Amino acid sequence: MTDRGKGKKESKELTVVPEHQETRAFETMNPARLKAALEKLHEFQTIVKSTLQEGYHYGTIPGASKPTLLKPGAEALLYLHGYVATGEIIDQVIDWDRPLFSYTIRITVRHAASGTLMGDGVGECNSMEPKYRYRHAAKVCPNCGKEAIIKGKKEYGGGWLCFKKKEGCGAKFIDGDNSIESQADGRVENEDLAELKNTILKMADKRALIGATLKTCCLSAIFTQDIEDMKINGQANPPTEAAKKDGQPHGTVGNGGADPTDDDSAKPTSDKQYGWLKGTIKNSRKKESEILDMLKRIAPDLPIDEETTLPNPRKLNRGQWRVFMGELGVTV
Length: 332
Fold this sequence. Notes:
It is a single chain. With 332 residues, the chain is α+β, with helices and mostly antiparallel strands. The chain has three domains: 71-133 and 191-225, 2-Layer Sandwich (Double Stranded RNA Binding Domain), CATH 3.30.160; 139-184, no CATH class; 236-332, no CATH class. It is built from nine helices and ten strands. The strands form four sheets. It has a three-stranded antiparallel beta sheet with strand order 3-4-5. The chain has a three-stranded antiparallel beta sheet with strand order 7-8-9, with no helix packed on it. It has a two-stranded antiparallel sheet with strand order 1-2. Strand 3 and strand 4 form a beta hairpin. Helix 2 (71-81) crosses helix 5 and helix 7 packs parallel to helix 9.
């Protein structure tokens, strides 16, 4: 072995190290190529928006700055690109005693043929979200067991009635009847959260999938995340400057109530808006109790329909209508 430095003369020469010069990305770009790429991206986004089906692939909520991409749309876009998505649970809480269920999922998008990583996205859902934590409770008739109890009108003696139009038996109960008035109604804690464990898992997966699709396919300029995920600290994403200049109204999503900045929030819903709402409710597959719970949260003073004895969604103002449509914008 050679002893380092032994028999060697010390070098007196100095090595000149060139000064590091920072190279910025834009300095090496070909302007013509960059322009062509941007034009191609814009053309692709235009084709996507005109090809996907509104109401199935994406939803449009009046007042929102951009339409919201839905799960079928995300799946279609990945398929058209030749991408495949895989998911993994990166964090979870499963506490049967509290109960508390929380899932955080990462979706990884790869090119199906080559396996090249194209992008990813993370989504989370938990049982403390109001839509899962609470349920709408209705008074049950002690005689027939139906959730058909309504408050009797004063002109007919008051009390309580098991309403036949709600499939009740017609039984009457006096004011103060403990079998009726001891029952909780309205918004109550959901004691069956364990039944929603799988639903919460699927929602986290869906949020991650849509987020990954928007990033990977460069579509955040024309679509947003699910409308239910637009809220930030209980508030909707603020309107864009372009939306403000165009005079587009925007609504509050998530906690109910019309946005005070909307000029038309207090106006009654139009026939077209109400028709759209009815169709959305029908296709949402939500239980009547869930719909009632949403109506009571969004518009607690909503007039009662005398025929059905239920809150009448036809009486929603436009601000409340936007909120309701926002909560129905995602099918669970």
